[in-house]
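Q: Could you fold this chain for me?
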Amino acid sequence: MRENVISAVERVTGLEVVEVNVTVNDVHLPEDDAESPTTDSRVE
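A: Sure. Below is the predicted structure, expressed as structure tokens.
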């Protein structure tokens, strides 16, 4: 994921990225949609 962020930023800006700080707080997978919809979303 980190390399994809670096590549995208460099491609869009034309600048060289020397540092990237990425934090992933949640991941949604398509398989999660098959589960019961009774769970509440954590995003408000």
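A (continued): DSSP finds one helix and no strands in the chain.
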